[in-house]
Amino acid sequence: MTNRRRTWIFAGIAVLLAGASAIPIAWDLLAPATPGLAWSDRSESLWVGIPARIRFALPAARAADGPSLAKAAFDDIRLTGAALNPFDPSSEVGRFNREGGQHPFVPSAELNDVLRLSQAAWRMTDGAFDVTVWPLKTLWKRAVKEGVPPAPDDVHGALAGIGLQRLAWSSEGAILPLNPPASLDFGGIIKGYAVDRAVALLKSRGAASGLVQVGGEIRAFGTSPDSRPWRVGVRDPLDEGGVEGVVMATGDLAISTSANYEQPVRVGGVDYYHIFDPRTGAPVDTRLLSVTVVLDQGEWPNAIADALSTGVAVLGPERGLALIESLPGAGALFVVRGDDGRAVETVSSRLAARYHHGAE
User: Fold this and answer.
1) pTM higher than 0.85, yes or no?
2) Contact between residue 132 and residue 161 where contact means Cβ atoms under 8 Å apart
3) Which residues pair with 191 in a beta bridge?
4) Rounded CA separation 99/79 (Å)
5) Where do the structural domains in the chain lie, given as residue ranges?
6) Class of domain 7-83+188-357 as given by CATH
7) Nearest-5° angle of CA 181, CA 185, CA 186?
C-alpha cells in the first residue's frame, strides 16, 4: 500500500424519475503520471446536470491532441443523449413515442443498436429490464404531482403498453406500429451506451489508458497515471461522503451503479424506489440501497452493465445474484438495509476477487 495521499473524486448526480438510476462513484487518482504518456482530464455537466469526466493517456509526442480528442468524446456523448431523449419531442425517441403507434417507423442505426442491446438485456433479466416502461414512469410522475399513488386500474392500463417482446420489425427494417403503441425510455441503458461509444473513440485515436464516467457509469481501461490498476470506489449509501468499498479495475472493466437514496419518488409523504418493475408496475423494494454491476467482456459492456444494474435491482438480491453468477464476465455488489438499519453487503463470486469493503 502506498503511503502517498489518496484522493477520492466523487461525482454526484441528480436522479430523475424518468431517467436512469446512477449514483456517485469515485475513482482514485495518484501521482506522478507514467513517464512517456500525456494525460488529459476534462469534466463537464451533461444533459440535465449529470456529471461526466474523461481522463486518458496519449503518447507524450501527441500531447497536443488531448484537448481536441476530449472534446470529440464529449460531443459524441451529448449527441447520443440528445437523439435518444424521450423528453424532447423533436428527438428521434420523442418522435417514435409520438408516432410509433401510427405507422412503420424507420430507426437510425444508433436507435436500432440500442434497441438490440435492450432486447439482449430484456432476455437476460426475464423482462425485469424493459425500455418500453415509459407509460409506467409517466403514471408515477403524475402521482408525484397529485400526491396519491396510482390506482390499480391505471397501473393495469399502463402495463398494457409495456413489453419489449411486442416490438417487431418489417423485412425492410422498420419498427411496425402497435396497438396500444409502445413508448421508449432508454434511461436505464443510454449512459452506459454513451460511455462505450466514448471509450471506442478514445481507443481508435490512440488512447493507451483511460477512465470515462457519465453519472454512475464508469469504464476503466489500461492503468491509472501511476501505472497501477484503477481503484474505483462505490459510495457508501448511508454516508454521502463515505466509500462503501473499492473495485480494482484491471484490464478493461465496465462498472455501473444504481441506487435510490439520492432522490426517491415521493408520493403523499411516502418514499418509493424510482425504479419500477415493468412486469407488475410496482416500485422496487426500498430496502435495496444500491446495486453495482461490473462486466469485463462484450462489445458494449457498459450498456449491458447499465441495463443489468437496473434489471437486477428489479429482481432483488437473491434472484439478481443468481443471474449475475450465470453470466460470463459479470460481477455484482448488492447493498441492502438490514433490520437494524445498517447496510449489509452481498458480493458475487467473480467480483470478490476485485472488491474489498472500505476505502483502503
Assistant:
1) yes
2) yes
3) none
4) 22
5) 7-83+188-357
6) alpha beta
7) 140
